[in-house]
């Protein structure tokens, strides 16, 4: 992130409650121009709430919401330079496709030819050029989705907000829309803020992800950062599959779990600090007992097309998920192996700032 | 933003005052020691006392409730049968014809209903009186019951019936044990609607009532033209209480019966514009 | 199969008797009456009398005109009410309060207005307090319109409220999001989408208003003569059922026309 540029949207200690429920807790975030952001979290985590605060559908209890450095907390929705693609689209059923897309430009007072051109270019952008005279109820879900995108973009927003726009589509359509949305975002060069509960979708589309839970941003970073270096149990569990076991950090680069010491690449903890250890299933390999760092018994396996998902249990009773290319024999005792860099260590209750600082400090150590 | 909000509330307050003003006006004057609805001569229960010794008006109140109770009961039975018939009818054309016929009395002006019933009773030589009023009330209440019951039937899971058949239930058992319990909220709502329609009716009754029989509406109409006693106000106050009670009962029923679909309960809570 | 037929017969018998006796027969009898003389001979004379008479035509025009005014007044008061009610938190409860007055006997409410509006009544005492001389408020067009509108308001609010409540709140959010202010959202999104409710409300108010007779008698003081009053008079006072039926048939035709005009057309046809 470049330092000089004023973020297009910034949240400064934003709080929001509905009655007794604390929906957002002290949210800080910055969004820059021209990138694809994703708010990722389970339902009720507060991700859609953030979107509604940006669009002006909700007002924060406290804190600042800044748009290009100016506080917009009390600016009504219709005066903000953002537009939203709503969940279930919210297309106006009393208007046809053309009138839906023309809604914003008409309100802005554009003349007829300008409106026509605008609508045409927007419908072309979403590949619905021939549909302008159709009624909304004549469209499929995927087509309605495209109209909703065209309608929001027709207002030339600086930020496009997308509230779980793909969740109602079937798997294949969802996949292709993911690519298309990403392409549209790159073509227009504007900021997209995308809300989803689907971690796969978030990883595939985003430049930057905010992982949310219980009204708190748990972690933010590039998809790679978040996948490789989850900050806590929640993130590790929510993003991808994880094996998480308790461990003790003996000293820098040595962790103790399942009764053994392992070499790893994390540092900066207190000596003998209790930690959680993450190992991704795809980083684990089955091997002979002699070569195994851990000895496990195969419990269960299922074929997943491109791999076998194997469940194994070690002698301490911990369950291990392994993704293997070859099938295993049920009940067999085998070894489990992994590399030091596959081990990821998480501290309990570490804040994002501390986490980033620690990562930086020992990574600098390595270089020196 | 805030100022605007208050203006809109003020408007609502105005509308509610307008809606309730006449009703509270009636009730307040029922306690007037004087004998007319003007001025204020102090508080008194005397009109309530008058009311309770006026055997004619008490008899009419009893008549009115009797007609309402009997007509809504019978209308509920016949209307439920009608709804079941329409529901079981799979020919779409016949179904639509029956639905349209069903709705005729719902949309007809009351004067038309009253006048045409009057012709009917006269042509078949029926003496006007309690029975003609009762029959008329049953007649205009049936379509309401049908309209309240049909949506319940349509919401009913059809595999319930299939399952009951599969388990060996005969017609009667299926109706009593499976269908009726499911649609009972609709029947109850229909019964209540019919009951209030009947209590509220003026025009139809006015046409088909003979000389010997009167309901409350008809009685007030004839008294209002001669100049009225505040006894009627006392009666209004008590009727208001009864209505309030009925509304509460109905509200509880419709709340309970339409857990998922909130609207269904209130959608048809419109006693007819009878008697205008 | 046989069981099913038995069942259907069991259901159709009471319901069918009702349909024949109380829906079809009365209307047929009324139609029949309108084409007969008092001796039972066929005639078109009743219709001739109706259409040949300036009085009846004026009365018909009056009925339509008054019904129109009542409908417009009711709509103007009810739409904002329904719209604002719909934004309240406990809206079902408030709606119930709107409905509650309709459960009070209509005659009682009309009767209250006699007390409110009479020459020595409350409204006059109130305005004379401000130095205005007592007016004859009863038995005027305005009092008639006021009372009729009062009676009809809940029947207009209810369908409009229901259709507003059905509108997905996200649509107005989307409208604001696209730059529309409150007024534009109402004008372009909410109002068009609530049209089915408005039409239902117009049906529920206009048709009964065409045939008012009780209010015309008690409040309008026979100054306002409508189709309803005429029917009542022919049936119950002058005993000219044939002409009464003729007016009835015309009222039914007017009702059908209203229904067709306010019918909710299939959406495709609305498009220009």
TrEMBL record, chain A:
One Pfam family named in its UniProt record: TOBE_2
The enzyme's main class, written as a single word, is: translocase
The beginning of the lineage is: Bacteria, Bacillati, Bacillota, Bacilli, Lactobacillales
Q: What GO terms are given for molecular function?
A: ABC-type quaternary ammonium compound transporting activity; ATP binding; ATP hydrolysis activity
Q: Per the record's keyword annotation, is Phosphoprotein included, yes or no? A: no
UniProt keyword list: ATP-binding, Nucleotide-binding, Translocase, Transport
Q: Which superkingdom, per the lineage?
A: Bacteria
GO cellular component annotations, sorted alphabetically?
ATP-binding cassette (ABC) transporter complex
The identity of this protein, by name, is: ABC-type quaternary amine transporter
* Spans through the membrane: none
- Tell me which EC number(s) this protein carries: 7.6.2.9
Q: Does the keyword ATP-binding apply?
A: yes
All copies of the ABC transporter domain together span 9-239
From TrEMBL, chain B:
Instruction: Report keywords, A-Z.
Output: Cell membrane, Membrane, Transmembrane, Transmembrane helix, Transport
Topology within the bilayer: Multi-pass membrane protein
Q: What GO terms in the biological process aspect are recorded for it? A: transmembrane transport
Q: Does the keyword DNA damage apply?
A: no
Q: PANTHER family in the record, alphabetically?
A: PUTRESCINE TRANSPORT SYSTEM PERMEASE PROTEIN POTI
Q: Which family does it belong to?
A: Belongs to the binding-protein-dependent transport system permease family. CysTW subfamily.
Its name, as the record gives it, is ABC transporter permease
Source organism lineage? Bacteria, Bacillati, Bacillota, Bacilli, Lactobacillales
Domain ABC transmembrane type-1: from-to ranges? 61-250
Q: Write out the annotated subcellular location.
A: Cell membrane
């Amino acid at each position: 992130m470049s330092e000089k540029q004023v973020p297009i949207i910034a949240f400064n200690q934003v709080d929001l409650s509905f009655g007794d429920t604390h929906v957002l807790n002290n949210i800080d975030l910055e969004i820059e121009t021209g990138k694809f952001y994703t708010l990722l979290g389970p339902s009720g985590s507060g991700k859609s709430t953030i979107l509604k605060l940006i669009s002006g559908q909700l007002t924060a209890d406290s804190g600042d919401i800044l748009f290009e450095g100016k506080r917009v907390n009390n600016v009504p929705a219709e005066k903000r330079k953002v537009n939203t693609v709503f969940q279930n689209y919210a297309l106006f059923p009393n208007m046809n496709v053309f009138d839906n897309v023309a809604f914003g430009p008409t309100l802005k007072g554009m003349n007829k030819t300008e409106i026509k051109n605008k609508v045409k270019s927007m419908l072309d952008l979403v590949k619905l050029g021939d549909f302008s005279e159709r009624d909304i109820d004549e469209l499929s879900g995927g087509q309605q989705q495209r109209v909703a995108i065209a309608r929001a973009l027709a207002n030339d927003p600086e930020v496009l907000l997308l509230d779980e726009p793909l969740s109602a589509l079937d798997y294949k359509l969802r996949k292709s829309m993911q690519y298309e949305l990403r392409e549209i975002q790159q073509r227009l060069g504007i900021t997209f803020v995308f809300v989803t509960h689907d971690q796969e979708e978030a990883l595939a589309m985003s430049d930057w992800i905010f992982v949310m839970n219980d009204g708190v941003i748990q972690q933010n970073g590039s998809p790679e950062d978040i996948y490789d270096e989850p900050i806590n149990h929640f993130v590790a569990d929510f993003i991808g599959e994880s094996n998480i076991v308790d461990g003790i950090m003996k000293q820098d680069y040595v962790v103790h779990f399942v009764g053994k010491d392992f070499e790893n690449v994390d540092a900066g903890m207190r000596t003998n600090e209790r930690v959680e250890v993450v190992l991704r299933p795809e980083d684990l390999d089955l091997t002979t007992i002699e070569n195994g760092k851990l000895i496990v018994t195969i419990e269960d396996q299922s074929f997943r097309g491109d791999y076998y998902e194997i469940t194994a249990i070690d002698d301490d009773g911990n369950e291990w998920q392994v993704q293997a290319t070859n099938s295993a024999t049920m009940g067999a005792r085998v070894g489990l192996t992994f590399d030091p860099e596959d081990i990821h260590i998480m501290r309990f209750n570490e804040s994002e700032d501390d986490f980033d600082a620690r990562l930086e400090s020992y990574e600098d150590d390595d270089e020196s | 933003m805030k100022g605007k909000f208050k203006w809109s509330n003020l408007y609502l307050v105005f509308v509610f005052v307008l809606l309730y003003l006449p009703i509270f006006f009636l009730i307040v004057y029922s306690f007037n020691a004087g004998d007319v609805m003007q001025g204020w001569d102090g508080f008194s229960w005397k009109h309530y006392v008058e009311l309770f010794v006026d055997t004619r008006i008490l008899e009419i109140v009893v008549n009115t409730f009797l007609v309402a109770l009997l007509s809504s009961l019978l209308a509920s039975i016949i209307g439920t049968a009608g709804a079941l018939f329409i529901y079981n009818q799979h020919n779409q054309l016949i179904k639509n014809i029956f639905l349209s016929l069903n709705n005729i009395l719902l949309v007809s002006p009351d004067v038309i209903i009253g006048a045409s019933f009057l012709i009917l009773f006269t042509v078949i030589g029926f003496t006007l009186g309690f029975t003609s009023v009762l029959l008329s009330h049953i007649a205009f209440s049936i379509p309401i019951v049908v309209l309240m019951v049909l949506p319940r039937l349509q919401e009913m899971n059809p595999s319930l019936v299939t399952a009951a058949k599969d388990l060996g239930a005969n017609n009667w058992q299926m109706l009593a044990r499976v269908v009726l319990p499911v649609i009972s909220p609709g029947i109850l709502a229909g019964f209540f609607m019919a009951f209030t329609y009947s209590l509220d009716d003026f025009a139809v009754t006015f046409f088909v009532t003979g000389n010997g029989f009167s309901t409350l509406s008809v009685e007030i109409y004839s008294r209002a033209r001669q100049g009225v006693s505040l006894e009627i106000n006392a009666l209004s106050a008590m009727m208001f209480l009864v209505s309030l009670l009925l509304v509460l009962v109905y509200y509880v029923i419709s709340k309970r019966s339409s857990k998922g679909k909130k609207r269904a309960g209130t959608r048809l809570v419109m006693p007819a514009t009878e008697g205008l | 199969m046989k069981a099913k037929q038995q069942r259907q017969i069991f259901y159709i018998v009471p319901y069918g008797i009702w349909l024949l006796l109380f829906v079809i027969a009365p209307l047929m009898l009324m139609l029949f009456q309108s084409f007969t003389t008092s001796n039972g001979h066929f005639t078109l004379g009743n219709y001739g009398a109706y259409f040949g008479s300036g009085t009846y035509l004026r009365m018909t025009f009056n009925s339509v005109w008054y019904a129109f005014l009542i409908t417009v007044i009711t709509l103007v008061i009810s739409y904002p009410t329904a719209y604002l009610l719909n934004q309240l938190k406990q809206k079902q409860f408030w709606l119930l309060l709107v409905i509650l007055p309709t459960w009070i006997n209509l005659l009682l409410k009309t009767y209250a207005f006699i007390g409110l509006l009479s020459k020595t009544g409350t409204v006059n005492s109130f305005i004379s307090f401000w130095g205005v001389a007592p007016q004859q408020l009863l038995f005027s067009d305005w009092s008639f319109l006021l009372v009729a509108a009062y009676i009809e308001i809940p029947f207009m609010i209810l369908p409009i409220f229901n259709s507003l409540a059905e509108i997905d709140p996200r649509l107005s959010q989307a409208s604001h999001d696209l730059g529309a202010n409150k007024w534009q959202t109402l004008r372009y999104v909410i109002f068009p989408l609530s049209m089915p409710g408005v039409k239902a409300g117009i049906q529920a108010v206009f048709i009964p208003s065409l045939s008012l007779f009780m209010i015309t008698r008690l409040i309008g003081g026979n100054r306002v003569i409508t189709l309803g009053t005429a029917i009542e008079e022919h049936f119950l006072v002058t005993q000219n059922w044939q002409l009464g039926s003729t007016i009835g048939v015309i009222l039914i035709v007017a009702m059908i026309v209203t229904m067709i005009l306010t019918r909710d057309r299939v959406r495709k046809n609305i498009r220009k």
